[in-house]
Amino acid sequence: MARTHAQWKAFSSEIQIEGRAFIDGQYVNAADGRSFDCINPATGDKLASIAWAGEHEVEQAVTAARRAFDNGGWSDLPPLARGRILKRFAALIREHRDELALLETLDAGKPIGDTTTVDVPGAAYCVEWFAEAIDKIGGEVAPVDPKLVGLVTREAIGVVAAVVPWNFPILMASWKFGPALAAGNALILKPSEKSPLTAIRLAALAKQAGIPDGIFQVLPGAGDVGKRLAMHMDIDCIAFTGSTGVGKLIAADAAQSNLKRVWLELGGKSPNIVLSDCPDIARAARTAAGAIFYNMGEMCTAGSRLLVQEDIKDAFIAEFKKAAAGFYPGDPLDPASGMGAIVDRIQYDKVLSYIDKAKSEGAELVCGGKATHTDTGLFIEPTAFVCQRPDMTICREEIFGPVLSIITFKDVEEAIRIANDTEYGLAAAVWTSNVTTAHQVSRRLRAGTVWVNCYDEGGDMNFPFGGFKQSGNGRDKSLHALEKYTELKSTLIKL
Ligand code: NAP
Ligand code: MG
After folding, report:
1. What range(s) does the Aldehyde dehydrogenase domain occupy (predicted)?
2. Which of 18, 57, 104, 265 is catalytic?
3. Residues 92-113 pLDDT 10s
4. Are 250 and 226 in contact (CB under 8 A)?
């Protein structure tokens, strides 16, 4: 039975929160005693003290990971056995759904209605999907001179570091550790300092599931921990989700150290194009509101640029305003809240400064535009502006908050030109009733995912997720994600 607002509040007052790092099968404080406060953005209350991993913890974790990988206790398990342990891990995530969802909601301000239905079940599904995949894919026997046998196989890469953001803390982490662990690697997870709680809790569940010590470790801390991992000479691969700026630093650090493999899932400024032959304006407007306001707009795929054809602009905006009202923020612990709190003060100030910038550049406010519930926490109204020019600041920079830029266009050519005129290429959408237009436009949009007459569909693990251009390289999800965590090997045997 789903809990009520009052029941979630009661649960939150009694939950025990672990804040220590998890190294070699044990929770530990930082040796130098450093810690930082974990704050609930909806109330300003301190939730826990979190261990801040330093050089000592990074060295310990890498040594433990290296040993656990090299002894073969994980990488050399039969795939079926590794899969069984991972399925147990997935089942434990599901069993602890409410606890993990509550931690995520308290830590990051995300609505409990979402963390219970999307984030936590999504993480369990990801682990289970990769667990089920690994005994079903094999290598190749390559055509070669008959005096030889030629095998092409994939094997685990070794020690993998995963550095993840705060917008979907458990889910983005699972997109890394699901395939990385399934492929047989040892993994060190660095959650964002803004949202470390679920990662820390997961470590104990991983151990309970039977994942050997040193194979799943968690190092909380700030960007300095990520940098140490990126620079480390004994880490074989770093998988990152976060901003394009930090992604570039990680790529440079990897290049300067040991050329560890680098996989980057970065930012976006995704266009959602509504053509005047859109099949259903009301549904398109509701979807457009969800595309920007879901998760407070803290979405890498946020449909943050709405391109609407001139002749339907007024009808579209009227419907959009109605839909936006449904996202008015409220207590994240209330299952009825459309949006929760902005993750922290830094992000909150950043979003408000973009709203000010839009106003000062002359954008026309359609809805929202201010902070709300300022006596309790960090809440911002669902906000949209009509932008007279596609080069206004809020049309170009990733805001990562509930702020939409609406841009009009005359014809399809202009829409495609504006849509692709960005350094990013994570996602895009087009709304049309014409199947030919749908195919032609999707083909020309430079983005890793294109939706037609929908947005944010495809929670299925089968679809690769990632970006063109400066939205990154490589893909999370799907069997292609396994490739990131393996090396290819050719073995030639003379008969
Ligand atoms: P961020 O500031 O780039 O941080 C991401 C992670 O990197 C955090 O764990 C952060 O630690 C760490 N970090 C910071 N500086 C580092 C450094 N110099 N070296 C190594 N690691 C470092 O991004 P964010 O603000 O957390 O997340 C928002 C961004 O993520 C947006 O741009 C969004 O589009 C992107 N995102 C992309 C996807 C995707 O799949 N493409 C999905 C979700 C989010 P601290 O937070 O502790 O400083
Ligand atoms: Mg927090």
Report:
1. 28-490
2. 265
3. 999 999 999 999 999 999 999 9
4. yes
